[in-house]
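A quick aside before the break. I want you to see a complete sequence-to-structure record at least once, exactly as it would be stored in a machine-readable document. Don't worry about memorizing anything.
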Amino acid sequence: MTTARVVVGASHAGAELAARLRQLAPHVPVVMIGDEEILPYQRPPLSKGWLGDPAAQADALLIRNAAAYASAGIEVRSGVRVAAIERDARRLGLDDGDTLDYVQLALATGARPRRLATPDVDRAEQAPNFHYLRALADAARLRPRLTPGARIVVIGGGYIGLELASLAIKRGLQPVVLEAQPRVLARRMNRRPSGFTLLTVVRAARQNEMN
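That is the input. The structure line, written in tokens, reads:
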């Protein structure tokens, strides 16, 4: 067992926090735990450039390489989940059976897409043409299916949904965006900017058709 400052979540925020903690207290070990089998990476390109480039490699998304974490004295545990948090004992139980004592604990796990509240959603999620888009593995599964002429339904008119729809247009697909709110970006913008954003996507579609 090791007593350390522990960051749960190998996200962009988690990686930056871990680096900052080492700078503030170099004598205190820092451990970062992530459930993916890859080092922390940039997520915004997953709905834009990386998703649209069939030749793009995963390493291009890394925030830092393994040598940088080792040099900074940050221990990264990839492919591991926290199974239990014992707050009184300041101890974590990991799903690989290990335990980890901590002096400080930070949760930087980020958000996850909301599962569809529809009948037979479990069966739908097993279909090869059903995708969530959050992680690198999700984008890697979706990318080969973005073929010109295909129809894609995007559920959610937020930033990620509109970015995906815009990319689909540029790749020659026919996207349909479904949004429960009266307009896109309803939680982020007032009516005028959200309308401008939608108009930009529509203009991209028309330009693609002319080309």
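Two observations worth writing down. Residues 204-211 have pLDDT under 50 and may be disordered. The first helix runs from residue 12 to 24. We'll return to this after the break.
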